[in-house]
C-alpha cells in the first residue's frame, strides 16, 4: 500500500499529497506562534505519559538552531530556540529569536512556556546569563551550563583558582571505541564556594565540573585532548554529572536529524514565518518517531497506544487546518 493510500485510510490527504507551492503558501499564510503552540499542546499529550515510565530526573536541553534555508534582508538566517526532553525525545516548546536579537533574549521567554520545577536544564555557553540562571532558580529547576569566554571574569577567574583547589571527587569513563576513535573522559567536580568570586550575581553557590577528554583516532593514531568547564546549581555530591554533560548532546543529534533525515537546511523558504512553520511541522514529525518508540515499549498497552497516536496526529493536523481556514 502506498503512503498516500495509508493516509487516505486514516482520513487525511484525500486529494493526494500537496505540491511544494501549496506547502509554501500554507507555511507563509499560517500564524507561526499559534502553530508552535499547537505543537506544544500536541507534545504535552504524550510527554507526560512517556515520562511516567522514567525514574530519573528529567533533563531539558535548551539550544538554538539556524534555519539556513531562509535568508532574511539583514543577511542572517532566522534562529529557533527549543526545549528538548532528553528522557522522552520530544521537543516540548520553541521560541523564535527576533530579527535583531539572539538566543539570550529568546531563552527566558522559552523557559516561561514550560514547567522546569524539579528538572535539570542544560544549555551551551550562550545561556550563561544572569537573567537566565535567575529564572531557572526561581522556577525551581537546576541547571548545568557550559562556561566559555563570553563570561570572561567568571571563566578566567575559575581557571586561575582551580589550580589551588582539590576536587571534591573525580572519576574517569572509558576508554571507549566509537566513531573510529578511542576516547577517555575524566570529570573533576569542585565546590565553587571558595572559587567563584561573584556568587551573588549568580544567585548563590555553584558546582564546577571540569571535563577533560583524551582521544586517539584509530586509523592514524593521532592523539588530541581538550578541556571544558561547566557550572551547575546541583550539589557536589550529584552522582555521575558527566552523564548529564553528555546528554545535552541529544538536542544536537535531534538538530542533525532535522537536517539529515528531513533536509531542513536544504528547503528554501522566503520568509521567517514560513521557516518557523516548516520547523514546527518537522519537529512534530520528528517527535512522532520518539512517541512511537515510547509507546511500543509498553507491550501491554501497544494497541491502545497506537490508537492514541493516530488520534492525536489527526487532531494536530486538524488544528493546523483550522489556522489556515482563518486566513
Question: Explain this structure to me?
Answer:
By secondary structure, this protein is an alpha+beta fold. The protein is built from ten helices and nine strands. It has a nine-stranded mixed beta sheet, with helices on both faces. Strand 4, helix 5 (130-138) and strand 5 form a beta-alpha-beta unit. The longest helix has 25 residues, at 272-296. The chain is globular and about 70 Å long. The chain starts with a helix and ends with a helix. The mean pLDDT is 84.
Search tags:
alpha+beta; 9-stranded mixed sheet; 10 helices; 23% strand; 327 residues; 9 strands
**Mean of pLDDT:** 84
Low-confidence stretches: none
How would you write the strand order of the largest sheet? 3-2-1-4-5-9-8-7-6
Inertia-based shape: globular
- Roughly how many Å apart are the termini? 35 Å
Classify the helix fraction into a percent range: 40-55%
- Main β-sheet description: 9 strands, mixed
Q: What fraction of residues sit in β-strands? A: 15-25%
Q: Counting H and I runs of at least 4 residues, what is the number of helices?
A: 10
Number of strands: 9
Q: Could you say which structural class the secondary elements and strand pairing correspond to?
A: alpha+beta
Order of helical and strand elements: HHHEEEHEHEHEEEEHHHH
Cα radius of gyration in angstroms = 22 Å
Amino acid at each position: 500500500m502506498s503512503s498516500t493510500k495509508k493516509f487516505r485510510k486514516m482520513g487525511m490527504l484525500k486529494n493526494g499529497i500537496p505540491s511544494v507551492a501549496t506547502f509554501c503558501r500554507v507555511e507563509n499564510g499560517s500564524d507561526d506562534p499559534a502553530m508552535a503552540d499547537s505543537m506544544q499542546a500536541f507534545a504535552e499529550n504524550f510527554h507526560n505519559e512517556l515520562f511516567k515510565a522514567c525514574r530519573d530526573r528529567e533533563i531539558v536541553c535548551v539550544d538554538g538552531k539556524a534555519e539556513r534555508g531562509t535568508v532574511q534582508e539583514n543577511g542572517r538566517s532566522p534562529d529557533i530556540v527549543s526545549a528538548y526532553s532528553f528522557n522522552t525525545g520530544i521537543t516540548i516548546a520553541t521560541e523564535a529569536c527576533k530579527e535583531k536579537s539572539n538566543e539570550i533574549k529568546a531563552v527566558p521567554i522559552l523557559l516561561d512556556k514550560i514547567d522546569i520545577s524539579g528538572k535539570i536544564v542544560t544549555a551551551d555557553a550562550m545561556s550563561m546569563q544572569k537573567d537566565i540562571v535567575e529564572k531557572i532558580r526561581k522556577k525551581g529547576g537546576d541547571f548545568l551550563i557550559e562556561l566559555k569566554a563570553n563570561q570572561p571574569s567568571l571563566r578566567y577567574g575559575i581557571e586561575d583558582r582551580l589550580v589551588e583547589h582539590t576536587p571534591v571527587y573525580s572519576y574517569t569513563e572509558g576508554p571507549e571505541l566509537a566513531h573510529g576513535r578511542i576516547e577517555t573522559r575524566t570529570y573533576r567536580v569542585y565546590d565553587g564556594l571558595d572559587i567563584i568570586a561573584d556568587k551573588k550575581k549568580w544567585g548563590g553557590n555553584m558546582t564546577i565540573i571540569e571535563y577533560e577528554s583524551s582521544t586517539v583516532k584509530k586509523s592514524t593514531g593521532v592523539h588530541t585532548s581538550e578541556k571544558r568547564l561547566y557550572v551547575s546549581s546541583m550539589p557536589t555530591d550529584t552522582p555521575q554529572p558527566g552523564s548529564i554533560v553528555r546528554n545535552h548532546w541529544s538536542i544536537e543529534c535531534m538538530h542533525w536529524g532535522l537536517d539529515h533525515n528531513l533536509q531542513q537546511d536544504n528547503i528554501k523558504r522566503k520568509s521567517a514565518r514560513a521557516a518557523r512553520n516548516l520547523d514546527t511541522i518537522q519537529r512534530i514529525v520528528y517527535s512522532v518517531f520518539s512517541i512511537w518508540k515510547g509507546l511500543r515499549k509498553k507491550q501491554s498497552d501497544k494497541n491502545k497506544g497506537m490508537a492514541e497516536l493516530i488520534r492525536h496526529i489527526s487532531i494536530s493536523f486538524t488544528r493546523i487546518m483550522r489556522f489556515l481556514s482563518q486566513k
